[in-house]
Specification:
alpha/beta; about 20% strand; 7-stranded parallel beta sheet; globular; 4-stranded parallel beta sheet; Aldehyde Dehydrogenase, Chain A, domain 2; Aldehyde Dehydrogenase, Chain A, domain 1; about 40% helix; single chain
């Protein structure tokens, strides 16, 4: 009980300081936020040896916990990935400041002039697993949008997140901004997560970024509004009119480039007319690349495959495993995705414009792609500099959540002694 009281007091203090910082950030000049992010980028690069040493401790911890190779890949940092964090910080710094942007403006017959302008959300709580770079991405995007942020990383990335967070605070200090603008929960205790979910007085929105278990917990227990980031049950449909070379290149990249990210393809749907040609070639290539292919009866004769079970449909593997089945046409593919997908990212490979139109109109995933690898389902690749997650819900934010999506709006109404009759 005493520990719970301590956690409750700890989180209450963090929340109170975040709320005070958010009030200051709401009117912080763009130049100060840009300066803080560039200084943080400099600090990350200067501290790369310390960050790598911290990450080595986390990798040892992850191995002891029995994390899969794909999960260890999500956790692992090396110099190129640190360079990617630095570039992400600089990219967010260079973006236009969304705060104060006029979204709409009009005059009323009453004489009122009305503007709708972007305003920060306030305090954002980010709960994430494994990927330590989320510390930098989330901190940068929340700051850019004038929000304070409370970061709660996973237990496996504890040391890496602390090292990166120290760099963000160095950037805030250099720009004269409150260090409480970006806070990291300093404990692995899961009670801190439960506390965050009920901090309605100080946290304005929760962003969960992790596996099904974490997101499910947040959705069940949160009293604070949530931007849902559900599983990436990502499908690629190979249409009868697909270009064989494009299809092979796209699928191999979508599955094997990095298996542990939410944009990795998990299920391959193949039009019946090309199952024995394009489809067979792709599946053989995937098997040769080391992917365990779990296939339906129509594809079972391909060497190296194994029979799919019912629970292979609608499954996020985050590993070198992929399900595949034959479908009759684009409508059949759509029906499968509607039944088993997670509204995250789905792709069609075809040269048939009518099939593309049907796919895009009849599916409602947050991201729909045509002739492109699903590994591009990423805020950085969308030109947002970074992302805080891929929102799969339909309220407020959807798809990659960048700085602009971390704002709300308010109305500025101007009169000249105007009264209502």
């Amino acid at each position: 009980m005493k520990d719970m009281e301590n956690i409750s007091e700890l989180m209450a203090g963090i929340g109170k300081r975040a709320k005070a910082a958010a009030a200051e950030l709401a009117s912080t000049p763009s130049a100060a936020k840009q300066s803080a992010l560039n200084a943080a980028a400099d600090a990350v690069w200067a501290a790369r040896a310390e960050i790598l040493a911290a990450n080595a401790r986390d990798m040892d911890y992850g191995r002891e916990k029995g994390l899969s190779e794909a999960m260890l890949d999500r956790l692992m940092l090396d110099e190129p990935r640190i360079q990617g964090m630095v570039e992400g910080l600089r990219s967010v710094a260079a973006q236009d400041d969304p705060v104060g942007e006029t979204l709409a403006e009009w005059d009323q017959p009453s004489g009122l002039h009305i503007k709708r302008v972007r305003t920060p959300l306030g305090v954002i709580g980010v709960i994430y697993e494994s990927r330590p770079n989320v510390t930098a991405d989330a901190g940068a995007l929340c700051l850019k949008a004038g929000n304070a942020v409370i970061l709660r990383g996973g237990s496996e990335s504890f040391h890496s997140a602390r090292a990166i967070h120290a760099c963000l605070q160095e950037g805030l200090r250099a720009a004269g901004l409150p260090e409480d603008a970006v806070q990291l929960v300093p404990t692995r205790d899961r009670a801190a997560v439960s506390e965050m979910l009920t901090m309605t007085d100080t946290i304005d929105v929760i962003v969960p970024r992790g596996g099904k278990g974490l997101v499910g917990l947040v959705q069940r227990e949160a009293r604070v509004p949530v931007f849902s980031h559900l599983e990436g049950i990502v499908h690629i449909y190979i249409d009868a009119a697909a270009d064989p070379e494009k299809a092979l290149r796209i699928v191999l990249n979508a599955k094997t480039r990095r298996t542990g990210i939410c944009g990795a393809a998990e299920c391959l749907l193949i039009h019946r007319d090309v199952a024995d040609t394009i489809g067979q070639g792709i599946i053989r290539a995937l098997v040769d690349a080391g992917v365990e292919m779990r296939v339906d009866a129509a594809l079972a004769r391909i060497p190296g495959t194994i029979a799919a079970q019912e629970d292979d449909w609608g499954r996020e593997y985050l590993d070198m495993i992929m399900a595949a089945r034959v479908v009759d046409d684009v409508q059949d593919a759509i029906a499968h995705i509607r039944s088993y997908g997670s509204n995250h990212t789905d792709c069609i490979v075809t040269e048939d414009a009518a099939a593309v139109q049907t796919f895009m109109e009849r599916l409602d995933s947050a991201i729909l792609m045509h002739n492109a690898s699903t590994q591009f389902a990423d805020g950085g690749e969308f030109g947002m500099g970074a992302e805080i997650g891929i929102a799969t819900g339909k309220m407020h934010a959807r798809g990659p959540v960048g700085a602009a999506q971390l704002t709300s709006f308010k109305y500025i109404v101007t009169g000249d002694g105007t009264v209502r009759s």
